[in-house]
Design a protein that fits this description.
Blueprint lengths: L9 H24 L32
Amino acid sequence: MNHSIYSADRSTHLKIVVMALVAGVVVAGLGISARVTDDSFTQTARVIKAGQPVTVSTSNASMVR
């Protein structure tokens, strides 16, 4: 058994890569299977109309020249 990744041989590196790929496939599979397929949560478009225009005439900011 190799206790350091630096001194590990080729088969140990291959085992690490294979386990990472298997874990990635499992996570992706769980993510795909956990999707909600219920269509009762459909989104509807809402129209927002602009109100009256607003004019800002005063400011408390100091002006530096």
